[in-house]
Amino acid sequence: MQHSLLSPILVACLLSAVPIKSEEDYGMYYYTFDNDTLTASCTKPEPLIFRLMVDFLTMVKSESDIAMEQCVLDGKGPGFTSPPLFARTIFAATTIAYNTYARYSQYANPATIYDEWTRMSQKQQKVPDCIYIYGFYQIANFIMPEQMTNYSFKQKYENTFHCNLTEILANADSELGLVQRDVDQLKLQLKTDGFNQEGCYADATNFRTINPPCRFDNRSTVAICRNFTHTYNTIWNYGEIVKTDFIDSPRTPVFTQAQQARPFSLGRLYDYLAPPYFEAPAFENGTMMNLTDQFLYLTNVQKDLGADNDKPKLIAEYWADGPKTTGTPGHWQSISLNIIRRLCYDNDDALKLLFAVSAATYDAGLAAWQNKRLYNSVRPATFIPTEYIDDSFQHQFVGMYCDFGDIVGWQWSPYQEDHVITPQFQEYISGHSTFSRAASFILEKITGSPNVPGNLSVTIKAGKSLFQPQCNKSNKACYRQCRVNSLLDSENNYIPKRDVTLGPWKTYRDIANEASISRIYGGIHVTSGDIQGRMVGQKVGEAVWAKVSALFNGCVRSSHDRFRPCSRVSSDGLSSI
Ligand SMILES: *[C@@H]1O[C@H](CO)[C@@H](O)[C@H](O)[C@H]1NC(C)=O
Ligand SMILES: *[C@@H]1O[C@H](CO)[C@@H](O)[C@H](O)[C@H]1NC(C)=O
Ligand SMILES: *[C@@H]1O[C@H](CO)[C@@H](O)[C@H](O)[C@H]1NC(C)=O
Ligand SMILES: *[C@@H]1O[C@H](CO)[C@@H](O)[C@H](O)[C@H]1NC(C)=O
Ligand SMILES: *[C@@H]1O[C@H](CO)[C@@H](O)[C@H](O)[C@H]1NC(C)=O
Ligand SMILES: *[C@@H]1O[C@H](CO)[C@@H](O)[C@H](O)[C@H]1NC(C)=O
Ligand SMILES: *[C@@H]1O[C@H](CO)[C@@H](O)[C@H](O)[C@H]1NC(C)=O
Ligand SMILES: *[C@@H]1O[C@H](CO)[C@@H](O)[C@H](O)[C@H]1NC(C)=O
Ligand SMILES: *[C@@H]1O[C@H](CO)[C@@H](O)[C@H](O)[C@H]1NC(C)=O
What we know:
The protein is built from 17 helices and eight strands. The chain is globular, with a radius of gyration of 24 Å. The longest helix is centred in the middle third of the chain and has 29 residues, at 347-375. It is mostly helical and 577 residues long. It has helices spanning 23-26, 37-41, 48-73, 83-104, 129-143, 145-151, 153-161, 175-191, 219-232, 291-304, 310-320, 327-342, 347-375, 380-387, 431-447, 508-521, 527-552; strands at residues 214-215, 241-242, 282-284, 287-289, 392-396, 405-408, 451-460, 500-507. The strands form four sheets. It has a two-stranded parallel sheet. It folds into two domains: 45-199, no CATH class; 214-551, Vanadium-containing Chloroperoxidase, domain 2 (Orthogonal Bundle), CATH 1.10.606.20. The chain binds 2-acetamido-2-deoxy-beta-D-glucopyranose (9 copies). The site of one 2-acetamido-2-deoxy-beta-D-glucopyranose (NAG) has 4 residues, from helix 9.
């Protein structure tokens, strides 16, 4: 052990516990969780992994902004832009932390055992902080080097924690040398995991959309698109669309290579296909809706999102997790961080929880996106304008700060920020539903209860919405365009009019269900995409839990990457592990 490399004491700044409160402190908390008396009652300092994950999510959020643009400008690929990539990035960070934990534990197995893997001797059971920080730093630096530079995290950790983070020779015979082996092993896996990180995450599987790029500028251009889809009978297929006023590049689908990526716990990805989407009707109010009716239903939902109904609008925006966020996978890490503090977990339990939840969102991303590619289904943003081009719809969304208005079909748009419009991947199945059900299932299992400790709720203060905050004449950002001739009132059409509370969510499932339904309110998914996403997410959650609980308990692995029934498991909860 090279003492000079490791801080002998836990740094003082960790000792002052900061309650999880402000967006300023933690970047990724878009809104504060309310009435967090449980967190306040936890007097332990935040575990190291908590601090590392908070910084990590900050970088993921920035990376989703800059790396995408550079890749697109260079014409290399879509870049760091889709939720499965966020999930993979977070999972890589938790994996290095978990593998480090496993090396020091008496029986836990690492996520991957490789030939030279060794366990620390019984004497070394407490992982020095710098060992965790070193692994975390090396993996973050491998995936998001420009963020590491921008945020000066290397200097921060070197100065604050007194760790030396310079990469060391892989076979150095020291604790850092051992974690360097884990880092090298994980980097090798990341290079060959099918995501194509080195190539700007471009699809190398030769996926092509059937429909040509369509302009949705006005009725004439939508009509051209409609003619095409009708002629070639591809109306149910995803196509690239352009809406000049709001976005100016084609919506090329991203992460179509999911089916060649390496899952964590899903033996064959193929087993996680949803039924063909024409055969997946959905129920609403006891009525079976075919696919056409499910699209039309969204126009009814949007009608209800009128000026006086702020709550579903806030649910839609709170869970949107679109550009400049950490995506749905990051949102579930934020929720997990909150749960860690509510339950006052120590570092070992905290990192196992974050690892398991991120494994769930990683596998959920692969499962959902292979469905998207296979079924290649059309988004409401394309289907409704083309299929109902001249039909009238009352009281629809026509732009931020605009009064809801009567429109004809070609003018229809989801309830989203103007520059977003709709994600550039296919509808079926819903990523939000798949991620959220899988993550909530893991939280139930790992905490040993379906209930959120103390409930969770989020209050959005009057005028503080993300999409449509209160503003005034001197703030030009508030003045936009309505898509139809409608009253634009930036002064008074702010959201919400009064404070609105989302939740209280009593169970993890409640949280997941709200994340899922938010995409219906937003007009981004139809009901079958939502429901089938939840079902696939459930199966993913079960597979991930089977694997992580076996790893935690050190069950022996057979040659087929399956796990023997585990004699050590006495209950599902973490406390027994
Ligand atoms: C928080 O707790 C206080 C006191 O118990 C209560 O008055 C308030 O309504 C709660 N706020 C929310 C958002 O639940
Ligand atoms: C760089 O970091 C700052 C905060 O230190 C952040 O506000 C900014 O968005 C980051 N820039 C890029 C390009 O990531
Ligand atoms: C950090 O570690 C590297 C490689 O082991 C070594 O060359 C360097 O001198 C160390 N830096 C400090 C400040 O100790
Ligand atoms: C519709 O948009 C196209 C392409 O942007 C433009 O050339 C055309 O003049 C527009 N037509 C009408 C009727 O506004
Ligand atoms: C669409 O097809 C119809 C019938 O073939 C044709 O009359 C019409 O001009 C076409 N519209 C456009 C915009 O191409
Ligand atoms: C279901 O019922 C609600 C409330 O009565 C109504 O607003 C909604 O349109 C109904 N859905 C369908 C598909 O009829
Ligand atoms: C869907 O069901 C409605 C009745 O609710 C029916 O009018 C319509 O023709 C059906 N559409 C398809 C494509 O089957
Ligand atoms: C959680 O919320 C439910 C209502 O959904 C309420 O009945 C219950 O008392 C709450 N529990 C706590 C601990 O606040
Ligand atoms: C109007 O908005 C601008 C920009 O957000 C802000 O700086 C200014 O203080 C606001 N003025 C009033 C009167 O609220």
